[in-house]
Here is the input.
Amino acid sequence: MPSDKSQGSFIVGALIVLGLVFAGHWIVTYVQNGNPWALTPWYGGAAALIIIIGLVTSLRRGGG
Here is the structure.
């Protein structure tokens, strides 16, 4: 059973990913010039990078 600290970390990570998705949706919806869909892979990459950094940091501190 996960501790409250790790559960809180997952909630924060989920909120960060939700924020990235919202920002990406907003950009794709409101950008009129150019191809806004070309930016979409960057949102997934940023979310994955945030999650990986969080996991590595958590494992280094012994919170795994």
User: Anything to note?
Assistant: Helices lie at 4-30, 40-60. The first helix runs from residue 4 to 30. The chain has a mean pLDDT of 75.
